[in-house]
Amino acid sequence: MDTHDSPRELATRLRDRLGEADETLAVAETCTGGGVGAALTAVPGASEYLDRVLVPYDYDALRTVAGINRETLDRHGAVSEAATAELARAARDLSDVTWGIANTGVAGPGGGTAETPVGTAFVAVAYAAPWESGDSATAVEQYRFDGDRQAVRERIIRQSLTDLLDAIGRER
């Protein structure tokens, strides 16, 4: 999948694939502040598969809105593989949908650390297989994007949509 495709092109493909399979989606995004949801809802037909978009932006919202464990946040931080995986599973399970996708990141210009510099992002995709199949799964990828705040956020939005498309392709 080409992450240079526009968010609209990616969202159109997602609408078609999810619609064909009669599957549903929930989104939880932090650093993109609703950008993934905006990209999905810009394409007609989103209401057929998109259940909800959560935007828990700080630690308290991650705990109280998405149910991310305090221990996960204390141990790994909000921008981490562990927190992003939990966030994708929370989106999936709280919404009772087929797919949950989540992103976290440091878009800048500040907020980065030596361990998590500006431009760091995590994208997680959680799949809900049929009950008792044992096939439900969550995959997380880490990325490092260059550019200013807007460029980093745009790249994370495109990467989130791309990772979801790739995951859907693997499950079929």
Characterization of this structure:
There is one protein chain. The chain is of the alpha/beta class. The chain has one domain (7-171): Maf protein (Alpha-Beta Complex). It is built from six helices and five strands. It has helices at residues 7-21, 35-41, 59-64, 70-76, 81-95, 149-171, and strands spanning 25-29, 50-54, 99-105, 120-127, 137-144. It has a five-stranded mixed beta sheet with strand order 2-1-3-4-5, with helices on both faces. Helix 2 (35-41) links the parallel strand 1 and strand 2 (50-54). Helix 1 crosses helix 2 (35-41). It comes from Halapricum desulfuricans. Residues 9-166 form the CinA C-terminal domain. This is CinA.
Q: SSE order in H/E notation?
A: HEHEHHHEEEH
Number of helices: 6
State the fourth-level CATH superfamily: CinA-like
Low-confidence stretches: none
> How is the biggest beta sheet arranged?
5 strands, mixed
Mean pLDDT across the residues is 96
Question: In which range does the helix fraction lie?
Answer: 40-55%
CATH architecture: Alpha-Beta Complex
Number of E-type strands: 5
Cα end-to-end separation: 16 Å
Described by the principal axes of the CA atoms, the overall outline is: globular
How would you write the strand order of the largest sheet? 2-1-3-4-5
**Secondary-structure content class:** alpha/beta
- Whole-angstrom Rg: 15 Å
Q: How many domains, as an integer?
A: 1
